[in-house]
Write a structure and sequence with these properties.
Keywords: Methyltransferase, Transferase. It holds the Pfam family Methyltransf_23. InterPro entries: MeTrfase_14, SAM-dependent_MTases_sf. An eight-stranded mixed beta sheet has the order 6-7-5-4-8-9-12-11. A five-stranded parallel beta sheet has the order 15-14-13-16-17, with helices on one face. 31% of the residues lie in helices and 22% in strands. The chain has helices spanning 32-36, 78-95, 111-120, 173-184, 198-201, 219-228, 263-296, 308-317, 351-354, 367-377; strands spanning 13-22, 40-47, 54-56, 101-105, 123-128, 136-137, 142-146, 160-164, 189-196, 215-216, 232-239, 244-251, 302-304, 325-327, 345-346, 358-361, 382-385. The two termini are 33 Å apart. By secondary structure, the protein is α/β, with parallel strands linked by helices. It contains ten helices and 17 strands. The protein has a domain at 288-385: Rossmann fold, CATH 3.40.50.720. Bound molecules: zinc ion (ZN). Residues 4, 6-7, 10, 48, 50-51, 53, 224 line the site of zinc ion.
Length: 386
């Protein structure tokens, strides 16, 4: 049993065992053997009945080490980049950031912090162990650091902290927030946190449940953890078809009325949790069988999209590599091998020779984009959304 990190009151209860899954789900290898031998980690999901927080209780921080060869960046997607641009405008306007100091923890390759500084006239520090760009001061007003953000007094002072798609990777999310709150002291400080929404991720077969994601938060659990760490909730919402959730928080803001968490959110997550194990195993078996049937029928089934969600699907449903190909639009992945299952990634134009009649995708958000690309290649295939 382990105590809930979010509310600090409940005891986490195990509800799902995904077995061993790839640790480095966003990495690809030049050598098939090395890809096959890449590390795996145990995924054992547990939930707090009190607040709906979900965590991999088998997570081992010693195996999950981030470095500059990895990139979990979402800015490659034009839709995500467009949302980021809007977010910069909104934050700059709402918090009057001119001359203020921003701290971006998990800054990726710096796209968001750079843009936020430029739009708002703020300066800032960005930290990320995966940051591979040039370090130090940047013309935008940002200073980039390649490495984990320090804790305690070594952390630069800030008026606004932002952390996008990193909070769910941290092994000690409560201590992280409590440390930021302590650094704020008596100053008026704001925070913006963005994570995948647990209600969405846990309603599927588990293609989104990847090893780097230690925690799964909905609005209720996110509110519980920020409030326990001494912050006030200003606002929360979802975007991208409900896939992503943000929460805006403050400290020492006297004008703030705060926003109450809705128990319906927790109950929706707990309902997804209670059906998860059965759904997960059914979907795994169903897709394995479906692929076998498509192969037997001569459909040459392929998968489009070799991101972490695709890797998880292959691990769970195509471990023996029955698919005719895995393709991706990212040229850096072509000819390289995915972790553990060692599927090779090919450019989409191999489909003109393979002529598949079934193409599996794992992200419904890209369905129309991929359908158009198949059309342009002259491939007439059924798109199957896993
Ligand atoms: Zn809890």
């Amino acid at each position: 049993m382990s105590r809930c990190d979010a509310c600090g009151a409940g005891e986490l209860e195990v509800f799902g065992d995904l077995g061993e899954i790839p640790v480095l789900c966003g990495v690809h290898w030049a050598d098939a053997g090395e890809a096959a031998d890449s590390p795996v980690g145990q995924m054992t999901l547990a939930a707090c009945p009190n607040c709906g927080y979900v965590r991999n209780v088998a997570f081992d921080p010693a195996v999950m080490v981030y470095d500059t060869t990895m990139d979990t960046n979402l800015h490659h997607s034009p839709a995500f980049a467009a949302f980021s641009a809007e977010l910069c405008e909104r934050l700059a306007d709402r918090y009057d950031l001119r001359g203020k100091r921003i701290l971006d923890v998990g800054c990726g390759q710096g796209e968001f912090l750079r843009e936020l500084c430029q739009v708002s006239g703020a300066s800032g520090h960005g930290f990320d162990a995966m940051y591979a760009g040039s370090t130090g001061p940047d013309p935008s007003g940002a200073v980039f650091h390649s490495g984990y953000a320090p804790r305690g007094a070594a952390l630069p002072e800030f008026d606004l902290f932002t952390t996008r798609h990193w909070f769910e990777h941290i092994a000690d999310p409560f201590e992280f927030l409590a440390d930021l709150r302590e650094r704020a002291g008596d100053r008026v400080v704001h925070g913006y946190i963005e994570v995948p929404d647990a209600g969405y991720d846990l309603s599927t077969a588990g293609w989104e449940v990847i090893y780097p994601h230690v925690s799964y938060f909905d609005a209720y659990a996110l509110t519980a953890i920020v409030e326990r760490a001494g912050w006030t909730v200003e606002d929360s919402g979802t975007f991208f078809h409900g896939m992503f959730r943000y929460i805006e928080i403050s400290a020492n803001e006297t004008s703030s009325a705060g926003t109450a968490a809705r128990v319906e959110d927790r109950d929706r997550t707990l309902a997804a949790v209670s059906g998860f194990a059965r759904r997960h195993h059914q979907e795994r078996d169903r897709w394995e069988q479906r692929i076998a049937e498509l192969v037997a029928a001569g459909a040459n089934p392929v998968m489009w999209g070799a991101g972490s969600r695709g890797v998880q699907f292959l691990t769970l449903a195509d471990r023996t590599r029955q698919l005719a190909a895995v393709v991706d639009v990212n040229p850096r992945k072509w000819g390289r091998y995915l972790p553990v299952t060692a599927h090779r990634v090919d450019p989409p134009d191999v489909l003109t020779h393979l002529k598949p009649s079934a193409v599996i995708i794992t992200n419904p958000a890209y369905k129309s984009e991929i359908a158009a690309q198949l059309g342009a290649l002259g491939v007439d295939a059924e798109l199957l959304v896993a």
